[in-house]
Amino acid sequence: MPTNTITAADSTDLLGEGWGDLEQAFESGQEPDSTELDGVYRGRLISVRGIDVLPPLVRRVVDILAGTPLLPWRGKRFGAADVGRRSGSNVWLTMRGPDLISFRVSRAERSLVLDYDVPANPPPLRTILGEVRRLGPGLYLGRMSVRSGQRTTPLLWFTLDNA
Amino acid sequence: MRGPPLQYDAIVVGSGFGGAVSACRLAEGGMRVLVLERGTWWGAEPGRRSFPRGLLGVARSVRNIRFRRGIVHRNLVRDPAGLYELSLYEHLDVVTASGVGGGSLVYTNVMEEPEDEFFDCFPQEMRAGEMRRYFDRVRSMLRPAPIDKATALPPKNEAYVRLARAAGREDNHEHPDIAVVLGDPDEPRTVVNAAGEVQSSCNFCGNCVLGCMEGAKTTLDRTYLPAAMRAGAEIATLTEVEGISPTNTGWQVRWFDHAAGRRRAGLADRVVLAAGTLGTLRILLRSRDRYRTLRGLSPRLGAGFSGNGDQGALMLGSSLFFAGEQGPSFNAFIRTRTSDGRHRLLLGEAGIPWTGLGLPVHVARRLVGTHMLLCMGREEPDSGTVTWDGNDLSVDWDSLGDSDLFEEIEHEMDILATTAGASRLVSRLATSPHPLGNATVHPLGGCGMGDSPDTGVTDHRGRVFGADGLHVADGSLYPRASGLPPSMTIAALAERIAELALHS
Ligand SMILES: Cc1cc2nc3c(=O)[nH]c(=O)nc-3n(C[C@H](O)[C@H](O)[C@H](O)COP(=O)(O)OP(=O)(O)OC[C@H]3O[C@@H](n4cnc5c(N)ncnc54)[C@H](O)[C@@H]3O)c2cc1C
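That is the input. Now the predicted structure with flavin-adenine dinucleotide docked in place:
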């Protein structure tokens, strides 16, 4: 049995997958190199906590909505990869921006960490923590969690892609 | 995440000379091999796409045109299953093929072995003597032979011999080995080739560059690739690789499946990049500079690129020649050498496929006496560089990189044209309006073999420095131009790389 079970080649491969499968995909992902994410990446919301308890039809509607302008989030922009302290921001409405809600980029065990605890963000957003792993060339799977005290609770899954 | 992961011992990208040989030998050596080829199967057999005929057919068989001049940067994909790719850079046009069998589908069949000293530019471990057995392996599969040993010379060759004699170049005149089944053109026979496939002998139609409907060309889809499939290799068509990234245990390859209209991915312990010089450079540079999944590659990546000193010319109104279509396209040369006896250039007549183009009779009649000359020369090393411009390859090359060579080529062409009584010689056939522009069918180099990352992108085994399990096996391996048709050498290099990979 191969140790690596990544099979997603496209964000659409992950749509409709259960929370457990997404966790497995994330587990088998590779740690992005510290300089890997650089520039703008198209984002896609893959799953939101609790959605898998909804009936399939409702889930399908949410999947479809996730790919329409009704969800104005377009992706993420990462600052230059070769500078020491890296930052990034979320891109809204069009791939060119505007950019709203920023994060700091650092490395943790096997993931690139997106830390929203930056002064420019309103306090509720500062509790957000993202982790990103590479599924393949140009394709990343990310998990967003909220921190409260010692606990982090996963909230949603997203992909980033620059194919 | 539907279905089990696609997991292979080796994924081979491209099915041309480097890819077909690699796939065949690795599969015969017991590896589970997947070949990813962006093109489709071609030929007269059921299930294959027919080679183009007629001007419209040829125009329709263009796969894509990459136009990268000035501020206009476009890749117009006309038909992902098309046969020809035209890449129009600032000063260089590049014509390549796409399909199962790669360049062998449209090449002019010349299988030329370089002279021993050419291997001096390769890493120390590789010398001409050691390469001989790999050339022999290619020979026993493709069985190339010179036309004058196999059949009566076609009229166009006799005319070329006469021209060489009249131009005072008779001593330098030679017939190269060509990978075509030869016989009496009026009574074609069938033969079973080295891979057990049936071929028919050549009828001298002269349409080699449009693809051989008769199956007389000993192409890779009739030799190495069926042998690879018999050894268990899978060949996936219309699959265009976009990028590669390392995993804990090997490599992930991501490709666009043109038939399904979606991306797919597969895993392998090793990847062999054999997508042709520009194809391989595109995958490596895109992975390094766009996906940022390849780090630590040699700074030489993209350096040492050349068009192999190619130059084409049209000779108009010549009186010496027969109509150009009789016989295999390109099978008689004049060769010149440097003062110390090294190969300098080859110059021959490349038959224009008049019948295959299906020109109206009155147009064809006016074109009698129009012939194409094709020359290739040993360009200086490091004449060109390929880089990533953010979206695609950018090729920085012009004929100033070796102006002496191109002047010599013009001079030799002039002598032939004058001797042939041509009314006009249109030299430097290329779309670039620039006086330094040119065109090539032999893009080479950019992933040159070297002794270390300072001198090359791969080692003598084709292993990419700084990327375990990643190999290159195609024309990009050339450390410098040979000034000779490269397919035989590419195939022999791939034979060697596969053998060493199996025994490592
Ligand atoms: C008209 C013409 C005549 C020629 N005549 C001769 C001759 O007489 N003798 C000679 O030695 N040479 C000749 N050549 C040159 C010869 O065809 C090439 O040098 C040779 O085919 C190069 O071999 P290769 O393995 O490097 O790549 P190729 O044979 O070009 O094979 C590369 C393959 O990779 C595929 N590919 C590219 N990108 C991707 C991707 N991203 N994903 C998947 N697949 C991909 C391509 O479709 C192609 O099938 C000629 C070329 C042309 C165009």
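Residues 11-162 of chain A form a domain with the Lipocalin fold (CATH 2.40.128).
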